[in-house]
Amino acid sequence: MDPINFVILASILFAIGAAAVLLRRNAIIAFMGVELMLNAANLALVAFSRMHGEIDGQIMAFFVLVVAAAEVVVGLAIIIAVFRARQTISLDEPAELKG
Amino acid sequence: MVNPVLFWVIAAITVIPALSLLFARKAVHVAMSVVLVMVGLATAYVALGAPFLGMVQIVVYTGAVMMLFLFVLMLVGVDQREELKETIKGQRWIGLFTAAGLGAFLVSIVGRTVLPTAEVGVQGEPDVIAVMLFEKYVLVIEVLGFLLITAAVGALVLTHTPRLKPRRTQLEVQRDRVLMGADPVNKPMPGVYARHNALDVPALDPEGQPIEHSISRVLKVRNQTVEGEQWRAQLEDPSHQEGDR
Asked: TM segments (chain A) (predicted)?
């Protein structure tokens, strides 16, 4: 089976992740949507690496992995900081900040 | 080339759990489904000739990142309910159509793209990856090191709470407690001085009077306590012996 099918699968996963970010109000679930989008990009990179017969795509996927890990750490810390201040992790609540 | 059966299995165990991101109510269920998605993606990496990346995916994502998510879920409370009221009118449908349109767009574009596929794929074994990382991309690795340190420090700074008052020592706590008129020693344990070694009986003071506040408040609320009177009667009447009961 051609590796381009994995790129199609990655597109579907990316769309699902985007929908989760747009639709869900729970900050943690929306954040998991972001993670899913990053992973979909990773899958596309690895599939392209297989199609080109080069290893650079896998290296790029590795870098995305590291950046995603750093992003998770900071993002979850922000969620905890907001929860401490407002006792909620709903994404709509901080909109009240604009008064 | 990838086995079609393997591809469809991977597609099933990634797309179906991923849909729980949209439909599951509880965040814990979503987190567990995303773990399954990550395992499916790791399988896909191994199938596409990236075994090292597949292992890293399992270790980093299912092992570290998703467990971190679960920790934070426990910290903020699992039963955080999601507000269903929409702040922006029609946000649900706008978001759904945008995401569906994005997916349809991507799938249609990728589906009609014809790309040549190399007959022999390269196997991303750890030694191959290591040589590539530390020769061609060594600068990127160093920058990533900076990024990781910054992220760790950032997380520490964001979750740090400054101490507003000086720490109270044990001596000060005890002194305040005595000043407030509280009992300076522990409360008596229930049933200790009675001839009955159980939690539902009040302790007896040296004069044989039951000490009411020695019983747990919970047992009192549940009406599961025993009056201390009968044990006091036993104390006064020597004809009652322990073996009678």
From this structure: 6-23, 28-48, 60-83
The answer on pLDDT for B226 being more than 80 is no
Rg (CA), chain A: 17
Determine how many CB atoms are found less than 10 A away from the CB of residue A18: 22
Following DSSP, what letter does each residue of chain A receive, concatenated? Answer: --THHHHHHHHHHHHHHHHHHHH--BHHHHHHHHHHHHHHHHHHHHHHHHHHT-SHHHHHHHHHHHHHHHHHHHHHHHHHHHHHHHS--BTTGGGGGG-
Q: Rounded to two decimals, what is the model's pTM?
A: 0.77
Tell which residue, B100, B158, B83, B20, has the closest CA to residue A33: B20
Q: Which domain holds residue A71?
A: 4-98
The helix (run of H) or strand (run of E) holding residue B210 is strand B210-211
Contact yes or no for B103 and A16 at CB 8 A: yes
**Confidence band of B34 (pLDDT split at 50, 70, 90):** very high
CB contact under 8 A, A74 and B30: no
Helix B126-135 × helix A56-86 angle, to 10°: 80
d(CA B93, CA B101): 12
**Beta partners for residue B203, in sequence order:** B211
Number of domains comprising chain A: 1
Task: Please determine, for residue A7, whether its predicted confidence score (pLDDT) is greater than 90.
Answer: yes
What pLDDT digit, counting tens, does each position of B170-201 carry? 888 888 888 888 777 777 777 765 566 677 77
Give B101-142 pLDDT, tens digit per residue. 999 999 999 989 888 888 787 888 899 999 999 999 999 999
Q: What are the structural domains, with CATH classification, of chain B?
A: 1-77 (1.20.120.1200), 183-240 (no CATH)
Query: How much is the ipTM here?
Result: 0.91
- Give dist(CA B189, CA B133) in Å, integer: 66
29-48 of B, contacting A, C-beta below 8 A: 30-31, 34, 37-38, 41, 44-45, 48
CA distance A4 to chain B (A): 8
Residue type, B195: R
Report the candidate in A72, A2, A23 with the shortest Cα–Cα distance to residue B148: A72
